[in-house]
Amino acid sequence: MRRREFIKTCCFGTGAVLIASSAQSCGINYYANYTRSNSNLIVPKSEFWKFKNDKKINRSFVLLDGGQEGFPICLQKIGDDNYLASLLKCTHRGCELNVGGGIYSCPCHGSEFSLNGEVLEGPADTNLKTYQTKTDDKNVFILNA
């Protein structure tokens, strides 16, 4: 294989992988509908449901675009009526965190956080900003968000 063909092949393969991975990630993160009441965010519990082929599928988390400083909030469902809410802003240098694999991870410098916001891996040394939640029959309330 000539050098030019090799470079074309490598570039095409890398581009295909990048396109496929970005297309896949678009379907994973769901931004929930919510309302704001004073300093609280109100998320209908139905936002955790997705219907596919007449089957009800539960989401383990939803994102909200109403976080402080322009960062999203991740609302995790961790039990029947138990929820955790964390601001997706890395405490190291302020990059937006990724959600997946049961952790929050920073794409900039590699910090990792548990779902309850505790530092698992540096360079970050401060836990994430988290919010208290409460629920009623139909809604999850993220307090002081």
What does this structure look like?
It is built from one helix and 14 strands. It has 145 residues and is of the alpha+beta class. It has two domains: 1-28; 29-142, Rieske [2Fe-2S] iron-sulphur domain (Rieske Iron-sulfur Protein). It has a four-stranded antiparallel β-sheet, with no helix packed on it. The chain has a four-stranded antiparallel β-sheet with strand order 5-6-7-12, with no helix packed on it. A hairpin with a 2-residue loop joins strand 1 (35-37) and strand 2. The chain is globular, with a radius of gyration of 19 Å.
SSE order and pairing:
Layout lengths: L2 H26 L6 E3 L2 E5 L4 E4 L2 E4 L2 E4 L8 E7 L2 E6 L10 E3 L2 E3 L6 E3 L4 E3 L8 E2 L1 E3 L3 E4 L3
Antiparallel strand pairs: 1-2, 2-14, 3-4, 5-6, 6-7, 7-12, 8-9, 9-10, 10-11, 13-14
Structural key phrases:
single chain; 145 residues; alpha+beta; Rieske Iron-sulfur Protein; 2 domains; four-stranded antiparallel beta sheet; 1 helix; 14 strands; 18% helix; 37% strand; globular
Percentage of residues in helical conformation: 10-25%
Instruction: Tell me the Rg in angstroms.
Output: 19 Å
Q: Which structural class fits the helix and strand makeup? A: alpha+beta
Number of domains: 2
